[in-house]
Write a structure and sequence with these properties.
eight-stranded mixed beta sheet; Rossmann fold; binds cytidine-5'-triphosphate
Length: 404
């Protein structure tokens, strides 16, 4: 996917620096050349030796090192890349970039570069929300720097909130999107098409503080939205609550529950393709209370009623049935059989079947899926969720053909 592309990766010093190793591995597996610059603080979290070994390139750290400068000066370093990526990007390096400070090799390289820059912030939640950081982020955005994340979740310091480095698999997707925008080399086979994707879990309220939910992370659905947008589709992502950053180039409609998800999907019609990857709760509580249920007396009896089926509704839509409707089937047993039956029952064109036995898939990086359509079953090898998304987007583009 990234064959022949060159990324200059600046690793700054945060606890998430260890994830840069996985990022390097993934980028290289996609055919990308990765050259790394580390700040002094990054060297406290990961060793330059590991970075050099994984990137199979020398690592550059010191602006005053004769060796580094004679091998490759900072100006050349900053120019010999298609994209400069800062991951993790600490509050400190973000502040330096915003102010144009150049006091070490990393910041000097970032100031000297004439190449597009993508940063993946990672820091404590309070540092992220600090007015200074938000001001700096606005400045960088205004300077044309692409920003991915941070994600929401548990942080290394025990707090939780926005501040996590986005997962390496998602970073690869963002890097691929940035490279394809820059190069304009990827054929954008879905230009002129509209796509709708559902993703994530739904939260079905019991009372103002409690809800019923499931283990979906939303990663597969978000990756599909990103992949469709990369191919040029005008993409609307209707997402239940997730910790994921908005995929680049995608319009995101955030919803809480199944009914809101259906309403947002219907509002997005007409579309050429709908991909329902959300793990929609099948049931909701019949009578949501407006006040918190107290613990007095016997435990409450919750009566459940069925939620609307979004996939089936879109598949049988009387006015705006998309030309192609794709559903997912998360099954624990008889995966292919159940999925094939589900395709017919829901009225969709394809089902992407995967096994969720023993916790596989939910929250994981990889996915092993089969595509079931009217012609039969196609088994795909174990792939990253980003790869599943890319392949699915290409299959969708081939099926839709050129817009008339
Ligand atoms: N789906 C939906 N709306 C629902 C339930 C499911 O759009 N209310 C979609 C999912 O997004 C997925 C497909 O239907 O694309 C199958 O979801 P799954 O949970 O596997 O199937 P269910 O319909 O819930 O069937 P069962 O739980 O009986 O396997």
């Amino acid at each position: 996917m990234l064959t022949g592309k060159r990324v200059l990766l600046v690793i700054s010093g945060g606890i998430a620096a260890f994830k840069a190793l996985d990022l390097i591995r993934r980028l290289r597996a996609e055919g990308c050349t990765v050259r790394c610059v580390m700040t002094a603080a990054a060297g406290e979290f990961v060793t330059p030796l590991s970075v050099a070994a994984l990137s199979a390139q020398p690592v550059y750290q010191d602006i005053f090192s004769l060796k580094d400068e004679s091998e490759m000066g900072h100006i050349q370093l900053s120019r010999e890349a298609d994209l400069v990526v800062v991951a993790p990007a600490t509050a400190n390096i973000i502040a330096k970039m915003a102010a144009g400070i150049a006091d070490d090799l990393a910041s000097t390289t970032l100031l000297a570069t004439d190449k597009p820059i993508l940063i993946a912030p990672a820091m404590n939640v309070r540092m992220w929300h600090h007015a200074a950081t938000q001001r700096n982020i606005d400045t960088l955005r205004g300077d044309g720097v692409r920003i991915v994340g941070p994600a929401r979740g548990e942080l290394a310091d025990g707090e939780s909130g926005e501040g996590r480095l986005v997962e390496p698999a998602d970073l690869v997707t963002a890097i691929a999107a940035a490279l394809s925008e820059i190069g304009g080399t990827t054929p954008r086979a879905l230009t002129g098409r509209r796509a709708l994707v559902t993703s994530g879990p739904t939260h079905e309220p019991i009372d103002p503080v409690r809800y019923i939910a499931n283990r979906s992370s939303g990663r597969q659905g978000h990756a599909i939205a990103a992949a469709l947008a990369r191919l040029g589709a005008e993409t609307i992502l209707v997402s239940g609550p997730t910790d994921l950053p908005d995929p680049p180039g995608v319009t995101v409609r955030a919803v809480e529950n199944a009914r809101a998800m259906l309403a947002a999907c219907e509002a997005a019609l007409p579309v050429d393709v709908a991909v329902c990857a959300a793990a929609v709760a099948d049931w909701r509580v019949a009578a949501e209370t407006e006040t918190k249920i107290k613990k007095s007396g016997a435990p409450p009896q919750l009566t459940l009623i069925e939620n609307p089926d979004i996939l089936a509704t879109l598949s049988r839509h009387p006015d705006h049935r998309p030309a192609l409707v794709v559903g997912f089937a998360a099954e624990t047993d008889a995966v292919a059989q159940n999925a094939a039956a589900k395709r017919v029952r829901k009225g969709c064109d394809w089902i992407v079947a995967n096994s969720v036995a023993a916790g596989a898939t939910f929250g994981a990086d990889d996915n092993t899926v089969s595509i079931i359509d009217a012609a039969g079953q196609e088994d795909w090898p174990r792939l990253s969720k980003a790869e599943v998304a890319d392949r699915l987007a290409v299959r969708i583009a081939n099926s839709l053909g050129r817009p008339s």
